[in-house]
Design goal:
Blueprint: H1 19-34, H2 39-49, H3 54-67, H4 72-77, H5 85-97, H6 100-156, H7 169-183, H8 192-211, H9 214-226, H10 231-251, H11 256-266, H12 270-284, H13 290-295, H14 301-313, H15 316-372
Length: 373
């Protein structure tokens, strides 16, 4: 008699959960399994500890499915937005080999290291973004509330012989820009301070729509890989994520062709996905994976040679994990170097903009002093 379907899954989860929540759940489940508790009881304990919300409903659905006779991987596969193909396939491999506790521990470590790498990248980008936002707000305040007052002052100033002051071109441009921001133009009486955010939002929407097209996504992904500043960091991050994912899957007993298909689906870069498809086809034809990876332009010679050696020695999974650990360290070094360059660069740029504004404001006053002299 087939197992009955559960009513608690709700037809599959429609809401994603954070990486931290899923990592904690995986780690706790691994501990309970290592302690020898039945999987149903382990899920019941974790379901009771989870706060009310979408993830609690997901665990309830998984618990009821397993209690009804489904395997853990089958129950988790019904919630693809929470447990992706990588997760469910590793659990499936653990169930088949009778080493579910070990697989869950590896999966927990994998997610912790992936999350750590993600936090490094986000942390590196946090400072420049905050500085840029604060500096832009400060410049906007100066242009909207400070510069227009000088226009009123200049309108009343005259030279000693009674002539109206002729403002320098840079000052005129600054005053016109400030007037546009506060009042708009004669034809369009909408303040520029309102137009600018709308234009920025519209540009963002257009760029996002372009990114959803195959050509646009390919262009953005290629730009991310080839950009002179962030390109090396993006490439290392992609390589680290791919090698760790593939190494963890192979180490868990997932067949290499299936593991490559899972990696292809979980990688966000379309050029890496194309390279992985070529690797998949090459292995299917009895060839090695090192050569097509080398032709992709994403992996450097060291990575390709290490993968080649791993295939020859039969320790590809260990070699891939070693590459991932090495690249995690390199990403950390690159990000620290990038931050050390961005900090003074942002200060110089913002300081230069403020200096230009101050120069444009006080240049007419210097002319008045000269004329008096």
């Amino acid at each position: 008699m087939p197992p009955k379907a559960s009513s608690g899954g709700g037809g599959g989860s429609k809401t994603r959960v954070s990486d931290k929540v899923l990592t904690d759940f995986t780690s706790n489940l691994a501990i309970l399994q290592d302690a020898g508790l039945p999987i149903v009881r382990s899920l019941k304990i974790l379901e009771g500890q989870t706060k009310v919300g979408p993830f609690k409903k997901t665990i309830t659905g998984v618990y009821e499915d397993v209690e009804s006779g489904n395997s853990l991987s089958e129950a988790m596969a019904k919630h693809p937005r929470v447990f992706d193909s990588l997760y469910t396939n590793m659990v499936k491999a653990g169930e088949a080999g009778g080493i579910l506790d070990t697989i869950l521990q590896r999966l927990s470590e994998f997610k912790e290291k992936s999350q750590r790498l993600k936090r490094k990248v986000q942390g590196a980008m946090f400072y420049p973004v905050v500085v840029t936002i604060v500096a832009t707000g400060l410049l906007g305040f100066i242009m909207v509330f400070v510069v227009p007052k000088f226009k009123q002052v200049y309108a009343t100033l005259t030279t000693p012989d009674g002539r109206k002051i002729e403002l320098p071109e840079i000052t005129t441009l600054l005053l016109n820009a400030a007037e546009w921001l506060t009042k708009g133009t004669e034809s369009i009486r909408i303040p520029g301070i309102l137009i600018v955010p709308v234009v920025v939002i519209l540009i963002g929407i257009v760029l996002k729509m372009v990114g959803r097209t195959p050509g646009g996504r390919s262009f953005y992904d290629n730009l991310a890989l080839r950009s002179p500043i962030l390109g090396p960091v993006v490439r290392m991050t992609i390589v680290a994520r791919f090698t760790r994912t593939l190494g963890t899957l192979l180490n868990s007993g997932v067949p290499i062709l299936e593991a490559l298909s899972i990696c292809k689906g979980s990688m966000g870069n379309v050029h890496l996905q194309t390279a992985l498809q070529k690797v998949h086809d090459a292995i299917k034809e009895g060839e090695t994976m090192a050569e097509p990876l080398g032709k992709s332009g994403i992996f450097d010679d060291m990575v390709v040679n290490m993968i080649d050696v791993g295939e020859e020695t039969g320790e590809l999974d260990k070699m891939l994990i070693r590459i991932a650990d090495n690249y995690d360290e390199q990403v950390d070094v690159k990000l620290n170097a990038l931050i050390s360059i961005l900090e003074p660069a942002l200060i110089v740029v913002m300081g230069g903009v403020v200096a230009v504004i101050v120069f444009a404001i006080f240049l007419p006053m210097l002319k008045i002093v000269e004329s008096i002299g």
